[in-house]
Each structure stands twice: as structure tokens, then as C-alpha cells.
Specification:
By secondary structure, the chain is an alpha/beta fold. The chain has 2 domains: about 210 residues, Vaccinia Virus protein VP39 (Rossmann fold, 3-Layer(aba) Sandwich); about 60 residues, rRNA adenine dimethylase, C-terminal domain (Helicase, Ruva Protein, domain 3), CATH 1.10.8. It is about 40% helix and about 20% strand.
């Protein structure tokens, strides 16, 4: 923690007022001002000692303050809103040298270059880019399971449910398979809409993704993406029909992977999809 003391800082509502901040719908912003909740999110990230943390969309800095109050090695806050960046300058000075502000779009930021390992991501993600950001981080983990030590992220509740859904669940889908292939996924707690300024129309959920030391089963990431896209693209059909979009011998694919062609996409396990990806690799060889 160093000499940083969040109690010496002005209240977040005062920061918002003095800088004329407002949450912008175009940026998917909803400010979380309850420091008890931001502290709880920071605690959900686990032991951050000697870990560099990347936060996406800090806004006025509530979660940033909570992260700086942990034993994190340093905090990199990525923000594209110039007004929020200006409001965060005082916090950056108070927490120097442990806080660094990065101006830019999180979609363009490479985690592996912006901060050294070990690194974690802790963020109240902008709703409009949350799943795109997560997919990009999962691609990093597919290349190197040690690249990110943990991801503690807030999503809309429906996205969180998809991430953690088991096979057979109505919301189990591509994102479920990819996330669970690479990580152990745990929903931690819900955050009601009234906790935000302005309040969104949905409940939010904090999710912790702990990367596995190795993927759940062997599979080429690109081929796994292809088979899940085909299967869930027509999820009401039997996989014998939905996988025809792959333009390969589906019967051979199913036979070699041991999958019942009469099954539907939502009942196949992560291991099943990995088996399909390996069979597809064999056919493509």
C-alpha cells in the first residue's frame, strides 16, 4: 500500500461535481460510487501482493481507490474519457508511483505490453464492450495460460450466467465453452442497479475467472471457435445438421470424436467440443 490513504481524498461525488463528470451511454459508463462495494470487488480478486493490476474504465476512480488500498504492485487504469482522466490526475499524484493512467480504448490495449507479469485484470467493464474484451483476453490465455493470473470482472447478470452455465442450461453457449475451457469460472456476488450512477436497467454480477494451468482438454483455439460457432449457430438443430456449415464430412467428424449426432449444442460438454476440434484438425490435415 505504501503511503496511500484513500481517506485523505475528496468524496467521489465531489470529484464528479467539481469536474462536471457524467456517465456517457456511448461509452457504456455507469459509475459505481459505493466504496464498500468497490472494496468488496477488490477483495474478490484475492491476494494481489506483487501483482500488477489493469483496470478498464475507472471513471471517477472508486474501484481504483480500492485497488490501490490492496497490496497490488501497481495499478494501470485504462480510460478513453478525457474528462475522467483529468479527474483522476489528483488520484494518480496521491498514489504515485503505483498508479499509472493510460489514455485509450481498452480494445486497443495489449495487456502483455502495458504491464509486466504477473498481471491481473479487475474491472467494472463497460457493458457495450464487455464480452468483446473478455474474448480477447481468453485468446491471450489460449496462447499462454500464465499470461494473466486472474480476471475479476463485473458484467450484466445475463452475461455472467452464460459464463458459468453448465451443459444443459438454457444459456450455455459459445462463451461458456471458451471461458470454461481456459478458466475456472465463479460468480461472486450481484450488484443492484441502484448502486450505480446512473442506475442501469439490469442487475450486474461480479465474476472471477481463474486461468487453468493448462486448458481443460487439448484443442486448437481457432478450430474450437469454428465448431462452437457452427453448433450454437443453429442450436435448436441436432449437431449432425448444425455442423454441416463446416463444409466437411460430418458423419466422420462425429464418429471420430465419439459424439452422438442427435444431440443438440447445449448438451455437449467442453470436453466434447474439444474432441470435435481435434477431429476437425485431423480431417483438415
Amino acid at each position: 500500500m505504501g503511503d496511500f490513504d484513500p481517506k485523505t481524498l475528496p468524496p467521489l461525488r465531489e470529484v464528479i461535481s467539481s469536474h462536471g463528470l457524467r456517465a456517457k451511454k456511448s461509452l457504456g459508463q455507469n459509475f459505481l460510487l459505493d466504496l464498500n462495494l468497490t472494496d468488496r470487488i477488490a477483495r474478490a480478486a484475492g491476494d494481489l501482493r506483487n501483482i500488477g493490476v489493469v483496470e478498464i474504465g475507472p471513471g471517477p476512480g472508486g474501484l481504483t481507490r480500492s485497488l490501490l488500498a490492496t497490496d497490488a504492485r501497481e495499478v494501470i487504469a485504462v480510460e478513453r474519457d478525457a474528462a475522467c482522466l483529468e479527474a483522476l490526475r489528483a488520484l494518480e499524484a496521491a498514489a504515485a508511483p503505483r498508479l499509472r493512467l493510460v489514455e485509450g480504448d481498452a480494445l486497443d490495449v495489449d495487456l502483455t505490453s502495458v504491464i509486466g507479469a504477473p498481471r491481473a485484470v479487475v474491472a467494472n467493464l463497460p457493458y457495450n464492450v464487455a464480452t468483446v474484451l473478455l474474448t480477447g483476453w481468453l485468446e491471450i490465455l489460449a496462447r499462454d495460460p500464465r499470461a494473466i493470473s486472474s480476471l475479476t470482472l463485473m458484467f450484466q447478470k445475463e452475461v455472467a450466467e452464460r459464463l458459468a452455465a453448465p451443459p444443459g442450461n438454457r444459456v450455455y453457449g459459445r462463451l461458456s465453452v471458451l471461458a470454461q475451457w481456459l478458466c475456472q469460472v465463479t460468480t461472486v456476488f450481484d450488484v443492484p442497479a441502484r448502486a450505480f450512477t446512473p442506475p442501469p436497467k439490469v442487475v450486474s454480477t461480479v465474476v472471477r475467472l481463474a486461468p487453468r494451468t493448462a486448458p481443460l482438454a487439448p484443442a486448437d483455439p481457432d478450430l474450437l471457435q469454428r465448431v462452437t460457432a457452427a453448433a450454437f449457430g443453429q442450436r435448436r438443430k441436432m449437431v449432425r445438421s448444425s455442423l454441416k456449415t463446416l463444409k466437411i464430412d460430418v458423419d466422420e467428424l462425429l464418429d471420430s470424436s465419439g459424439i452422438d449426432g442427435r444431440a443438440r449444442a447445449e448438451v455437449l460438454s467442453v470436453n466434447d467440443y474439444c474432441a470435435l476440434a481435434r477431429a476437425l484438425a485431423d480431417q483438415s490435415a
